[in-house]
Amino acid sequence: MTLTVARRAEELYAHYTRGAERAVVMTLGALHEGHAANIRAARERVGPGGQIVVTVYVNPLQFGAGEDFERYPRTLEADARLAEDAGADLLFAPTDAEMYPDGRPSVTLAAGPLGERLEGASRPGHFDGMLTVVAKLLHLTRADYATFGRKDAQQLALVRRMVRDLNFPVEIVPVPTLRDPDGLARSSRNRYLSPAERDTALALSRALFAAAEQPDAPGARAAARAVLDKAAGGDPPLALDYLALLDPATLDEAPDAHTGEALLAVAARVGTTRLIDNVTLTLGGRA
């Protein structure tokens, strides 16, 4: 199989197989093994006769002032190799003119209250831009399935809400977070980290794993906070943005008495790099 790279929608459509199920894996590029896992999950859905489209587009609408839009890695040749090796059929790498032919669009999607908390509070407008481009790419790729990583839990929740609220004819497929052997969640932004910064960044996963050993919400919060507080005094230091224990169904803050599944989410900055991570906990009911 040879991967086809398309820059325009018409080029993409020319290679579609009539009647085949199609899955899309949306990315900003700078692909890594976590993206490959999404591609493999897509193949499980569509089977050997289906088609997988990987999109590579650094969407300006979801980057705010002072964020890393200009320096975000653009590695299309390497991305194409990884996508092909993971089993993708097509790679769609549209230009800005293809995505936004009239410049910044005057009609966009609004993420609503769920998009204003957590990541949305730190990155105003980010989720509006994300949902707008996801909606466009769902239309452009004509996908039956779309895979999204669980690491971006709020993004996953918002995409699911958009699909449900606006009746998109697509199934959203969540894919478990992939981690390096040291526990750090795979992210395209990890390449920004120096060796010392990476050592500090490991506090995110350590905090989550420490919390997972606790039987209740107060214990989970305290265990995670202890790890993060220690990292805040490190060299280089970790600057915590938020640590939130959430009801996974609503992403509302979980009360101390919460039992059952909960989502512990963390965001922090190490040097100039902002990282996020999360883990699902089971609270209460232990012997």
Instruction: Calculate the terminal CA-CA distance, rounded to whole Å.
Output: 53 Å
Largest sheet: 6 strands, parallel
The percentage of residues in β strands lies in 15-25%
Number of strands: 9
Shape call: globular
Main CATH class of the largest domain: Alpha Beta
CATH architecture of the largest domain: 3-Layer(aba) Sandwich
Low-pLDDT residue intervals, each spanning 5 or more residues? none
Q: Output the structural class.
A: alpha/beta
Mean pLDDT, to the nearest integer, reads 96
CATH superfamily of the largest domain: HUPs
The order of strands across the largest sheet is 1-4-3-2-5-6
CATH fold-level label of the largest domain? Rossmann fold
Could you explain the architecture of this structure?
With 287 residues, the protein is an alpha/beta fold. It folds into 2 domains: 4-175, HUPs (Rossmann fold, 3-Layer(aba) Sandwich), CATH 3.40.50; 188-283, Pantoate-beta-alanine ligase, C-terminal domain (Pantoate--beta-alanine Ligase, Chain: A,domain 2, 2-Layer Sandwich), CATH 3.30.1300. The chain is built from 9 helices and 9 strands. It has helices at residues 9-13, 33-46, 76-86, 96-99, 119-122, 126-141, 153-165, 195-212, 217-232; strands spanning 4-6, 22-27, 51-56, 90-92, 145-149, 171-175, 238-246, 260-270, 273-283. The strands form 2 sheets. Strands 1-4-3-2-5-6 form a 6-stranded parallel β-sheet, sandwiched between helices. The protein has a 3-stranded antiparallel β-sheet with strand order 7-8-9, covered by helices on one side. Strand 8 (260-270) and strand 9 (273-283) form a beta hairpin. Helix 2 packs across helix 3 (76-86), helix 6 crosses helix 7 (153-165) and helix 8 (195-212) runs antiparallel to helix 9. The termini are far apart.
